[in-house]
Amino acid sequence: MAENRASAYGEGVPCWVDAQLPDVEAGKRFYGGLFGWTFEAAYGGSVWARQDGEPVAALAHKTDGRMPTVWTVYFATPDAEALADRVWAAGGQVVTAPLPVAELGTTALVTDPEGAVFGLWEPAGHPGFGRRYEPGTFAWAELYARDTEHANDFYGGLFHDALFGPDAEPDFGRAAVSDVFPAEMPPHFLVHFAVEACVAAVGSVQRLGGRVQAPPFETSYGKVAVVTDNQGASFALLERLRG
């Protein structure tokens, strides 16, 4: 497994997550209570969440109330513009063209051919997660797709080395939407955060005003529960398999 403290990410490796929320202060109370995060002001009115002083996520104010309240996963790339072009050529869509974010890097939002939204991150001053794979930090990104074979072809073409190469990292999976969600649920990425004990963390979510979408269930990579925060953003809690 990769070290918790990361300084660089190869193309196609999940390197950052953010939540678009109606109320950032309410988000700070929820996630601070759940994961013990501390917060500091960042670019554009957003805040960075830190675990043990290292950046692990961002909370941003949703500027358009018609937009969904969601967590988004960002995949690293050395060239966001070139990767956005490859997404388009492979049948995806470019939602937001590559845009510099101060001195931090360049970002874009895209979708796969089924409409699942994900971000691209070309780092400059901000390489991504300072910590991961430990309680209160990013642990996994699961794509819930209608056609998993098509998804494997699409992402395998974009991110072959990250998914199938000799240094592939175990933090991006694909599953059928109907495995966990109602069949009518749109394809989407679900960000997983590591916890020590899934059942206890679910109790904390409920006490903090969130709700349970799918109670704890077993997967090949650990025990997972799907929850929402106190504003409706979905995410998952992952208790890794021991040993």
From TrEMBL:
VOC domain segment(s): 13-123
Keywords of the record: Lyase
Superkingdom of this protein's organism: Bacteria
Name the record gives this protein: Enzyme related to lactoylglutathione lyase
GO molecular function: lyase activity
